[in-house]
Amino acid sequence: xxxxxxxxxxxxxxxxxxxxxxxxxxxxxxxxxxxxxxxxxxxxxxxxxxxxxxxxxxxxxxxxxxxxxxxxxxxxxxxxxxxxxxxxxxxxxxxxxxxxxxxxxxxxxxxxxxxxxxxxxxxxxxxxxxxxxxxxxxxxxxxxxxxxxxxxxxxxxxxxxxxxxxxxxxxxxxxxxxxxxxxxxxxxxxxxxxxxxxxxxxxxxxxxxxxxxxxxxxxxxxxxxxxxxxxxxxxxxxxxx
Length: 241
Hints:
Helices cover about 40% and strands about 20% of the residues. The chain has 8 helices and 9 strands. Helix 1 packs parallel to helix 2 (about 45-50).
């Protein structure tokens, strides 16, 4: 079974294109979609139910805006409660269409070779950024270098939402740490990556072009807030993993 987990917050303008992109891939015909809405103030939920009405969908709603990490954790827990096979996979991605769907089949095929975690990476050879501001690219690069050094992480990308997890890995993380993701914000992607490494996961990266021009509206990641999240994580939590 393929599960596709997508956190959403005020993504109404992006949903139609997201549906079109995913529906064009025949290998996703029987996928189970899980959307976790972080208390959107627009009609994101209604648009999801309208666009994906012929697909297998589960929409999890919250009554308070908490952050993407919290949304991912809710989605992972729902999937673990419903998955019956450790060979199932979970695809995580953004709802804003910045993820390159054209590499997804390759990512799945690589996952089936025995990898527990497949990361889509704009930093790998062949990857890159398109229509992304210089300051955002620079801050992302600097943060990645610092964090890889501090935590002795070999992979190039640490914060991308676009990944494929084996169910078995998620079960191992939950067994070891009780909670798959504790952090509520964007730093959550580093948290779960570090936990996967501590669980001896086999991890591989696939080059990806991150195209911000495909997004309608602004990024939900606030640079200043996310920077404080990283600092707090480094000081109080990261070393405990």
